[in-house]
# Entry
Amino acid sequence: MIVTATLTDPAGNVSLPFSKYIPVVGPGGFPQEYSLSRPLLVNNPGALVAGEDWQALQTDQDIYALNFFGYPDGTNVADTRQVVLVQTDPTFGTVLQAFQTDAATILPGGTVTAKASVRGGQSFSGVDKAWYRFMAKFQSGFTTTGQGGGANAWKMMFGGAQRHLEISNTWEYIEQFDKHGGSEALLPNSDPDQGNLNPANGNTEWTDEEWWEWIIYEERVSATHFRVRVWRRELTVNGVIDPNAPWDNRWGIETTNGTVPTGESDRIQLGINRNKPMFAGQLQYWFWGPWEVIDGSVLPDPYGIESQII
# Structure
């Protein structure tokens, strides 16, 4: 449930409405289909490249001990305790609540921070075929809108050195390779709009406060030939996982005759940065659920969806 309070700094200089998630823990424990120790992974050694379900975290101090979160400029990693909090959740047990704010807002923890957003990331041994899966839930009214010039954008997920998932032009999902001169085309069976978040079009990702799921498959066919495929869906209804939830969007991009900086999938980054600063007094949050990276050479189609996008 969501409650509203007033957030004020000790000197009384900043005061603004502040909505905070108060967890209501549901029965049943962590959903096994998203467990990092589920039989599919245990019975295929080497399939799980990296992952985190957050279930071992008990305090905010535990978060920055992971050395997972930091800031776009690479400084003050320990200060992420101000903008990432441990919370409990009826769907995924323990989750992380992350904040974006303007440069002067006081965040939970009591210290002024000039950091507008926070990113998470982990490197791993490079693979030619990588399946990424992660879950997120957004505060109602979440937005990429900010002040100043340029597009309203938020880089949500990078795999390797690639911009696999970015929200730009306020509402539009886009993806692109750092292709360095290559040509790019949509794969067959791709949605032409690649996912548009405008509530006027019936999208509820930033209004319904439900969990959403993304699966991204990055495939390095050769040194100059790459594919990325994306699936996106609303995973829960009233906080309960719908086992038959359809994929709201799916699309794929193929690039040929180009190169990328790393060549292989060797990292994941979540919540990379905002393109524009938020307005004075603006504060918003979202939740990260579990994430995982699977080696596609060990498990070619771990979620049974590859054939949906050729």
Notes: DSSP finds two helices and 19 strands in the chain.
